[in-house]
Structures are given as structure tokens and as C-alpha cells.
Amino acid sequence: MVKYMEEMKTKRLNREHDALIIARKFPAINILCEYKKSLLPWTESIMPEPVDFCNFAPVKAVLELPSEVKVDESSFADIIPLLPSLFADWRVDIEKQILKGFGRMMKNSQRATRDLAFLGPFGAFVREDTESVDEDSSDEDTELAENIALATTVFECHDCSFSNWTTNYWDISDDEDDEDEDEDFGIPAFSQGSAAKKPLFYPHVMGHQCLTRKVDFSCDRSDPSIFLDQLDRTRTSWSCKKLRISKRAKTMMEAIVERCGLEPLFATANDMDNQDTLLGCPLCANWTDSTSNDAKIPVFGWRAAVGIYL
Predict the structure, then answer these.
(1) Residue 252: which residues within 8 A CB-CB, separation 6 or more?
(2) Is residue 54 part of a domain?
(3) Using one digit for the tens of pLDDT, what is the confidence trace for 43-94?
(4) Looking at the structure, do residues 153 and 302 belong to the same domain, yes or no?
(5) What value does the CA radius of gyration of the chain take, rounded to a whole number of Å?
(6) What is the pLDDT of residues 184-243, one digit of tens each?
(7) Looking at the structure, do residues 197 and 269 belong to the same domain, yes or no?
(8) 87 exposed, middle or buried (CB, 10 Å; 0-12, 13-18, 19+)?
(9) CB pairs under 8 A, 24+ apart, for 33-38?
(10) Does residue 53 contact residue 29 with C-beta atoms inside 8 Å?
(11) Cα four-point dihedral sign 161, 204, 155, 179
């Protein structure tokens, strides 16, 4: 009986401390909001949201102080000078994540192409026993960084697009026993939202809102770090698992880049923005009369061009 009572007491204290940590997140998030406001206007870099912020080691240390310690906004005063470096480290980490995902997708695509080249007479894949020589990791990272920035590298979000059968899903797990891998990751599914396809380009894709949102009907709504004013969604840690690369959009972008007078193998999204070429659709031309060479044609930028025909 004594042992049982001790166990119940321990569980109760743990629940109370968990509730206290949630309550302490309110002043922590206030610190985050005020810091972000102090940096306005900012457009070049992505900022962490409350879930990731509360998981920063210095912030987490304050949140998990003993129950008898009072925690308010002043408790985070020593962390404020550290925020620039903490944010920078976080950006480096998510940069590695998206490059890892992009690299894995590229390797899977190359492996699929190689397998097709060795297709056996009865449909069985015949693989070569030779192993490729590993490239220098720094050279590989540099190549990935260059390729991911190309205008022909078009991302789509699983939650924002219906074009499931023309794309490759990401696979960023290192091993089959990756416990963090979502069970339904990589399985085509209809979108939760609009039917419109929204092409995304690096680096702005890293700030896409779906990367920090998830469908969740049963979360703890008292937790301010995950709460959203939506019944079916909550905040989550940044993840690029919802992203995929569209082969169809890549083909379309190659044509668009060439039309704009640039080279698809080298032109980045930033180069296309600087070029700022307006495109028109000949199928939408409205001729004034049959003898005139003049027509009214709607024009749009290059980003809108690929989105219209996806």
C-alpha cells in the first residue's frame, strides 16, 4: 500500500510539474514575440516558432526549473543576448535537414533510373554488384546547395497540392528503424486544403507555413507553444517531410527559364527574380479582329506561370 501511494504521489507531482512547464511557456513565448518585433521588418531569413524556441536548451532549462522557483519574463533575461546565435544555429540545422532530404530524393531518383536500365527479362531488377566510389562529402554538399537553388528545382507541399502522381516524395530517414519517421510519410494522399498547386522555390520554401503545422484533433489546447485558432491543426517542430519535388514542374520551368533568356542548368530563382520577365499565354490571346496583328494577352511573372499550368 505504501509503495502504491508513493507511485501515485510521484505521478501527481509529475503531472503538476508538466502543467507548470506549460504555464511557464507563456512568458517564454512573450519574450520570443517581443524579440521578433524588435527585428521588424525582416524578410530574408526564417525565424523559429514557439515549439522550436521552447526546445532551445537555454530556454528549456528555465522551463524545467524546480517547481518552487518562480519563473516569469525576467527569468529569461540572460537568454535574450543569446537569441541571435541560437537562431543562427537553428537555421544551420534546418538547412542541413532540407539539403539531406533533397540529396536523398536525388539519390533515389538516380537509383530508380539505374534499376530501369538493368531491368531483367521477367521484370526482376538486376543490380550491378559494383559499388560507387563515395564522393567527398563537402563537394557533395556544395553540389546539393547549388542544385537546390536552381529555378528548375520546384517544391510542392503535400498539404497544399493535389498533383500526387507526378512527383517524388522525400525520404530523409537514414535507416529503416528511424523512429521519427511518420507512418504515412511518402504515401500519396489528397490535400487537406485548397486544390490549387503552389510551386515553392528555395530558400523561401523553408518558411512555408505547412512545415510547422500538423493535423491534430486531440492536442493539449492549454499549451501555448502548439495552440492555433484552428480545430484541426496545431504547431509542430519545423520539418521538411511534407515537401516533394515535381518532375512536371521542373520540365515546365526549364522551358520558362529558356524563354527568359537564361540557362536552366545554372539559373537560380534569384536570377529569375532579377530578370523579372513578364510572360504571356498565346492561348489566351484576344485578337481585336482577323486582320490585325494586335492582341490583348494577360501577362504574369515567372512564378505565377508555372503555378497556373501545374
Answers:
(1) 306, 309, 310
(2) yes
(3) 767 899 999 999 999 999 999 999 889 999 999 999 999 999 999 999 999 9
(4) no
(5) 25
(6) 323 233 333 333 467 889 989 999 989 998 887 776 778 899 888 777 788 999 999 988
(7) no
(8) buried
(9) 35/80, 35/83
(10) yes
(11) negative
**Would you state the cell numbers that stand for residue 193, as one nine-digit string?**
486544403
Q: In whole angstroms, what is the distance from residue 36 CA to residue 48 CA?
A: 10
> Which of 56, 67, 54 lies closest to 12, judged by CA?
67
Q: Name the domain count of the chain.
A: 2
Range of the domain at 281: 258-308
Position 199 in a domain:
yes
φ/ψ of residue 234, rounded to 5: -140, 165
Q: Do residues 70 and 136 make contact, with C-beta atoms less than 8 angstroms apart?
A: no
Which residues share a beta bridge with 156?
244
Residues 203, 281 within the same domain: no
